Amino acid sequence: MDWSFPNIRHMAALVATARSGSVTRAARQINLTQPALTQAIAGLERELGCALFERGPDGMKPTEPAELLIARAEAALSLIGSWRVTSTQLRAFLAVAGAGGYAGAAEDTGLAAASLHRAVSDLSVVLGQRLVEKRGRTIVLTQAGQRRARAFGLARAELRSGLDEVARWQGKAAGLVTIGAMPLSRSRWLPQVLLKFSQAYPDVSVRVLEGSHADLSPPLRDGEVDMLLGALRDGPGVEDLDQEPVFDDRPRLVCRTGHPLSKLCQPLDLTRHEWVLPGSDTPLRHYWQDMFTTLRLDAPEVKITCGSILTIRELLIASDMLSMASPDQLRVELEAGLLVIIDPPVPVTRTIGITTRIGWRPTEPQAAMLDLLRDKERLDLS
Hints:
The chain is an alpha/beta fold.
C-alpha cells in the first residue's frame, strides 16, 4: 500500500488563493503570512512543473492545470476537515489504521513506531477527537477514527486524481484505474474491456483486485477501488453506492458429464444430491434458495460453501455434487465435455453491472473504462 499524501498546506494555499483571487486575502483566510503562502504556491508549482496562477491587475487567475486540481483539492480539504492537518499525520494514521497497530505500520512505512505514535497523537489534538484506543496489545479505531479513516482515504483518492489530471494535461504518462472484480466479471466481460482499454490508453495502469462483494465493497467505499464489477445487490447496505445494470446473466445447474441427473432431472431429484455453492450472502445463493421455495421443496444441505469457481469446477468433475453457476464461468469445461448444464426448473436471472461511490468523479481514463464496460454492442456477452 502506498501511504503517501500530497502536502496539505500547499493544497490549502492553492484553494484559498483561487477562491479569493488574492494572496493577501488567501493568507488571512488560512492564517499564514503572505510570504509563507507565496512559498507554498511556489513549492507546489515546482513539484508539478507548471504555473498555477497568472498575476494580473484583477488578481490571481488560476491557469488551466490549476483548475484541474482546485476542485479535487477543495473536496479533499473538506473531507480532511482542517488545513492544519499535515500529510505526515495523515500518512501515519492511515498506516496505523491499515496495519491495526504501530508495529505493523512501522514495518509497512519504514517509519519508527514512536514517530507514528507522535503523529497520530498530534492529529487527534488538531481534530479534537480521540482516533485510536488500546485494547490489550492491539490498537483499534474509535468510531470517530473509523469515520476519519474513510474520509482521509477518499481525500487521498481525490488528490491523486487531481495530480493525475494535471500530469495528463502536461502530456505525461499518468493515471491508474483500480477495478474490483467479482467472479462472473472475470470470465469474459472484463478481459474484453481490458484489451480495448490498453489499446486506447497504453500509458495508463490498471489494477484488478479479485474478491467477493464483501471483500471489495469496503475498499470501494474507502477510495482504494474505483469501480466494482459483478452481480448487483438488493436490500439494505448499498444506499451509499450507485449500481448501474449492464447485462443479465442466466445461471444454470451444473454437474459432471455422466451424472445421474445429466439426462433426466426432476425437481425432487435436486434435493437428493450434495451441493457446492458460494456463500449465503451472495445473490446466487439467494436465487438457489428461492428456486426451492418456489418449487415448495426443502432446500438440500449445502455440503461445501466456496467462492472459488476453480475449486467448484474440480469438485464437480470429481464427484456427483451439483452447483449453480453462469455457463461463462465454466465455458472451457463445458466445451471440453467435462461438465454439462441442466436447465433449472425455475428460470433464474441476475443483473450484472457496475458499482461506484455516489458522488464519485472519474478521471478521463476512469470515465473511458466505464464507457467501455457499458458498451454492450461491441462486447460479446451472449
